[in-house]
Design a protein that fits this description.
The structure holds 2 protein chains of 2 kinds.
Chain A (H helix, E strand, L loop, with lengths): L1 H19 L5 H5 L1 H11 L14 E4 L5 H11 L5 H5 L29 H20 L11 E6 H5 L1 H13 L4 E7 L2 E2 L2 E2 L8 H7 L3 E7 L3 H13 L5 E6 L22 H11 L11 H31 L1 H12 L17 E2 H13 L5 E5 L3 H4 L18 E3 L4 H14 L3 E7 L7 H10 L4 E5 L17 H6 L5 E3 L4 H13 L5 E4 L4 E2 L16 E2 L10 E5 L2 H15 L4 E5 L3 H6 L2 H8 L5 E5 L16 E4 L10 H7 L4 H12 L6
Parallel strand pairs in A: 1-2, 2-3, 3-7, 6-7, 9-10, 9-11, 11-12, 12-14, 13-14, 17-18, 17-19, 19-20
Antiparallel strand pairs in A: 4-5, 8-15, 16-18
Chain B lengths: L2 E9 L5 H11 L3 E12 L4 E6 L2 H14 L4 E4 L5 H13 L5 E3 L14 H11 L5 E2 L3 H8 L6 H12 L5 E5 L7 E7 L4 E7 L9 H14 L4 H17 L18
Parallel strand pairs in B: 1-2, 1-4, 4-5, 5-6, 6-7
Antiparallel strand pairs in B: 2-3, 7-8, 8-9
Helix pairs in contact in B: 1-7, 2-3, 3-4, 5-6, 7-8
The chains are: A alpha/beta, B alpha/beta.
């Protein structure tokens, strides 16, 4: 039966790809048996309840094999129709080119950029262990599921896979099972030209159990390997399955030509003939395969219902745990959260203020977990009262990612996608580059991940340009759906955290200073902080001649400039813009009210490359103080002076620009 | 152009008194006028002599400028005896002066009391209740309250006591407290607001008190609210101290023509 299922998968996948005139037939043909065993026997899921919390997670890390996954979801009885398969890769379809989170039932994460999915799976397996440690009791195992991922040669070559595998091995994530589709062919040709290491040895060195030399086209061998994988509880397992790319294609099997382009009509007909499928029929599913999955679905539903019963008993017996469970799964915002009364002495670095807030709210949000890439003492993203997650303590709340930023980002995505936690991760802003692909994926999936990026400008000082972010802030703002908040002082840091918890919409990057910043008086209140930008200076009696716009540490600089201008008789205002993209989303009336009259001189001050600020400037007169080069090694005060972030210099320039209006 | 008047003593050294006030008015963009109360013979080293003008003549000066030019704000500095205080009180009432800043000068830099007990009483009971802002330094706040001020909490207590005299805003200048930051405290009856600035290490601070209160008056004359006026005055005084002049043999004067 499983061989029959495998061939049905092959037929469906190539028909989808032919109809779309694009797609990747190589993996669906090569991994059909693996798919048949996983969905036909191994995986625990319920197609009628795709969000069942205790389902096994399956991540297709080699996301280009999407037609394989859609075919399996279709056969398994998810809410995916034949029509959906026919619309493969079409605009607004439920079957996009690569699997997309939120678009298709049964898709656990968006995959495609190689290696991301593998690291997501590590995050999911970690989340499972952490939830189990919190909610399982001696008499009830509420959380007890596996995480499976299928990865190809491409995934295996990516650096992120090494980082994530290393951490998974260190943590001994025994319920993580990775299947490696080892066909020795990648997009451009054979892997022997680039990739000749012994993967099995590598993974053994990472503390993985490795089941090598599995014939990926033998149902029996695959089943046996999966059973053997589950026998080891203290190590993740890698199953290395030898497969033939494009299996069954008359001329294109074992060739890179089957990787990423349709086979063509002739080849498809030959393939179907080889596999014993009706050559002229499209989207053929035999009655017995339908029958098989119908029965399986019934069993799966029963399995889920049994879990529900167990869950209700558990909930009744442990109401406090149930309450925590509900909060964690829904990321419920506690009504009594109030940070205003939390006293933070200033001047203080916003990274330190953030740490005070984080530790304060940690007690109220038990679902808040996270960590940093070996920088906890510097980024201060650490929950002081709680333990670290290690192989012998998954009840901890501090994650130690080691110096593995890229994996940190993707593992955090996996934790968020798994659900049950609100994860944060942290490093220096300059190293956000090391994890940018994962940030992009979080944004694409709108996962509620929190990034704490500290040491946010040239004012890092002596470490020099390698450690001084210049273009990172602006480039993060360019990622759609990613909120970027750069608070100006300890009060804005509190408000930012409040926003983060009140608005669970997608990822947020909190950009924090290394250096101390003074408390800023918000002369018109902070009610409009959430709009991304608001006026902090005194109410003017006359229309302002100069509007000073800044974010983060430069807001206090702008306030100094403001007072110098006032001494010189210029009417000016200070606008703090902690979240520029949010500000730009506000209605025009509000934006204009904040930015002042068109004829006012708009001055933007930000220790970053300033490209994106042009949208806030008016045509007639503007002046931008920003970084147009890398920083330098030196004391922060020297750098401020050298790069022009000096209130007197800025004021002098503004006075020159305003001359004629200035009385002096 | 807005107009401000200073009622204060003359400093022959040019660093404090009406000389400092008029320079401040000019720098902050208001037209400045003066009514002298005393003439001092002084330099950067100290005061060599004081000659008080007859109270009637103080009144006459005020009449002269008020009846012709009028004033958008008035700053009152050194009033060295009860009669002069009473004259000024009478004139403030007569011309219904709203934006009145009282700098209760009564202690010299050396620590010597400049005012007799009865003059202090007149200041407290009659002049301060008419003011929008009163700007004592720590020693002056101690004299006004009979309290000992050692820290910010003491400052707050003193501000409450002075507020009860009937003044709208109390600004206690904490410059003499030994802390890293110079903290000034503003109290308007319900909230305390602290104005902090980094201490500037210089001995050239002659005339800071006068300059500060006249800067507040200049900003009030231009329609600023008290809090913002104090903000701007703080910034002005900081710039003036940063550019202070190392002239004379004692405490050098500020540079009222602030440069960048």
């Amino acid at each position: 039966m499983f061989y029959k299922i495998a061939n049905i998968i092959r037929g469906l996948a190539v028909d989808m790809i032919e109809q779309a005139h694009s797609g990747h037939p190589g993996l669906p043909l090569g991994c059909a048996e693996i798919g048949a065993v996983l969905f036909g026997e191994t995986l625990k899921y319920d197609p009628s309840t795709p969000d069942w919390p205790d389902r096994d997670r399956f991540v297709l890390s080699a996301g280009h094999g999407s037609s394989w996954l859609y075919a399996l979801l279709y056969l398994s009885g998810y809410n995916l129709s034949l029509e959906d398969l026919k619309n493969f890769r079409q605009l607004h379809s439920k079957t996009p080119g690569h699997p997309e989170y939120g678009e298709t039932p049964g898709i656990e994460v968006t995959t495609g950029p190689l290696g991301q999915g593998f690291a997501n799976a590590v995050g999911m397996a970690l989340a499972e262990r952490m939830l189990a440690a919190r909610f399982n009791t001696s008499d009830y195992k509420i959380v007890d599921h596996y995480t499976y991922t299928l990865l190809g040669d491409g995934c295996m070559m990516e650096g992120i896979t090494s980082e994530a595998a290393s951490l998974a091995g260190h943590l001994g994530l025994g319920k993580l099972i990775a299947l490696y589709d080892n066909n020795s062919i990648c997009l451009a040709g054979e892997t022997k030209t680039t990739f000749t290491e012994v993967v099995a040895d590598r993974f053994r060195a990472y503390n993985w159990k490795v089941i090598d030399q599995v014939n990926g086209h033998s149902i029996e061998e695959i089943k046996a390997a999966l059973i053997k994988a589950k026998e080891t509880e203290d190590k993740p397992t890698l199953i290395i399955a030898k497969t033939h790319i494009g299996y069954g294609a008359p001329t294109k099997q074992d060739s890179s030509s089957s990787h990423g382009a349709p086979l063509g009509e002739e080849e498809v007909r030959g393939l179907k003939k080889n596999l014993g499928l009706p050559p002229e029929e499209k989207y053929y599913v035999s009655a017995e395969v339908w029958e098989f999955f119908k029965n399986r679905k019934k069993q799966l539903i029963k399995q889920r219902e049994e879990w529900e019963d167990k869950f209700s008993q558990w909930a009744q017996k442990y109401p406090e745990l149930k309450e925590e469970w509900d909060k964690a799964l829904n990321l419920t915002f506690p009504q009594d959260l109030e940070l205003e009364s939390l006293a933070i002495k200033s001047p203080i670095a916003t990274r330190s203020a953030s740490s005070i807030v984080l530790n304060d709210i940690a007690d109220k949000f038990s679902y808040l977990v996270g960590g940093s890439a070996d920088l906890a003492p510097s980024t201060k993203a650490y929950l002081e009262k709680y333990k670290e997650v290690q192989r012998d303590n998954f009840a901890g709340r501090n994650l130690c990612f080691g110096v593995r930023e890229h994996a940190m980002g993707a593992i955090t995505n996996g934790i968020a996608a798994h659900r049950g936690f609100r994860p944060f991760c942290s490093t220096f802003l300059v190293f956000s580059d090391y994890m940018r692909p994962a940030i992009r994926m979080a944004a694409l999936m709108k996962l509620p991940v929190i990034y704490i990026f500290t040491h946010d400008s040239i004012f890092v000082g002596e470490d020099g340009p390698t450690h001084q972010p210049v273009e990172q802030l602006e480039s993060l703002r360019g990622i759609p759906h990613l909120r970027v908040i750069r608070p100006a002082d300890e009060e804005e840091t509190k408000l930012a955290w409040e926003q983060i918890f009140k608005k669970v919409e997608g990822p947020v990057a909190l950009i924090l200073s290394r250096q101390d910043l003074p408390h800023l008086e918000k002369h018109r209140g902070t009610e409009e902080f959430f709009r991304g930008g608001y006026i902090i200076s005194h109410l003017e009696k006359e229309a302002p001649q100069v509007v000073l716009i800044a974010s983060g540490s430069e807001v206090s600089l702008a306030s100094e400039v403001n007072l110098i201008l006032k001494v010189k008789g210029i009417t000016s205002r200070v606008v703090s813009i902690p979240d520029r993209e949010e500000f730009l989303r506000q209605e025009k009336k509000y934006r204009e009210e904040i930015l002042g009259p068109q004829n006012a001189l708009r001055v933007v001050i930000e220790a970053s490359t300033g490209e994106g600020w042009y949208r806030l400037l008016n045509n007639s007169s503007s002046y931008v103080v920003f970084m147009n080069s890398f920083g330098k090694s030196g004391r922060a005060e020297q750098l401020a002076d050298y790069f022009g972030f000096n209130s007197k210099k800025i004021a002098r320039k503004i006075l020159q620009l305003c001359s004629g209006t200035a009385h002096n | 152009m807005k107009i401000a008047l200073t009622i204060a003593g003359s400093d022959s050294g040019g660093g404090a008194g009406i000389q400092a006030d008029l320079k401040t008015f000019l720098a902050l963009g208001v037209y400045g006028m003066s009514a002298l109360t005393s003439i001092t013979a002084q330099n950067t080293l100290g005061v060599q002599g004081i000659y008080d003008l007859p109270p009637d003549f103080v009144g006459l000066q005020i009449d002269a400028v008020m009846q012709d030019l009028g004033a958008d704000a008035v700053k009152v500095g050194m009033l060295s005896n009860v009669s002069i205080i009473k004259t000024v009180v009478e004139k403030v009432k007569q011309y219904k002066i709203k934006n009145l800043v009282v700098d209760p000068v009564m202690v010299a830099k050396s620590g010597d009391r400049l005012l007799k007990e009865e003059a202090v009483e007149a200041l407290k009971k009659e002049l301060i209740p008419l003011a929008k802002v009163v700007t004592p330094n720590l020693r002056e706040a101690e004299v006004l309250t009979n309290l000992r001020i050692r820290d910010i909490e003491d400052m707050k207590e003193a501000a409450r006591v002075i507020y009860k005299l009937g003044v709208e805003n109390v600004l206690i200048k904490g410059g003499h407290l030994l802390s890293e930051e110079a903290v000034d405290l503003l109290f308007e009856g319900s909230h305390f607001k602290e104005f902090k600035t980094k201490r500037i290490n210089t001995k050239n601070t002659h005339g800071t008190g006068c300059t500060f209160s006249s800067a507040i008056a200049a900003e009030l004359a231009q329609g600023k609210e008290v809090e913002e006026a104090v903000d701007i005055a703080k910034q002005y005084i900081t710039l003036a101290i940063q550019n202070s002049l190392d002239i004379g043999h004692g405490y050098g004067p500020l540079n009222h023509r602030v440069k960048y």
